[in-house]
Amino acid sequence: MSDDRTPPTKILAPELGLGWQTGFDIVVDVVPMSDDGEIERDWNGGYVDMTEPEFQLYEIRISSSDDMLPPALANMWKGKVFSIVPPNEHTLVIPTGGVSVQFPRKIHSARALTMRSEPIAATFSDKVATLASPATEPVRVVALYEHEVVVTQPYRNSMQEREVRYSWDLTTEETGNF
Q: For residue range 84-95, what is the model confidence (pLDDT) as tens digits?
């Protein structure tokens, strides 16, 4: 008889302590922050372009509604900074004849695929995916990003006593240190 006690989630966030009995019904929302892409004015009335990459940040919300144990939320107060690799994949395309593509975040893991989802040989370093040879057709590169985030709202940790079930949520935003 096997005793499989691996975490039921693919999220990598050591400071949350997502282990066995935690993370059964996790929802991860990765959303561009609402102020990104805005055109603002400086104190002289000139335009400040907030569409530059350094202003394109994500809000990352994590929640679960069916855990037997809560994650390590006790130190997740507003202002707490930690690292996370959500399971949400991001895709860029290398056009026919292209060899590489640069992602806006550090790549934790990635894979290159044809449009028919056949694997293509590629290497991945920091933010760059490079094919072994020029693409003979468009190639999708699918990656998981590493994020440094800061807690921006108080966490929620609820327990249904009779069923011994926890639900919780945590809202963070990228720090912009990438």
A: 999 999 999 999
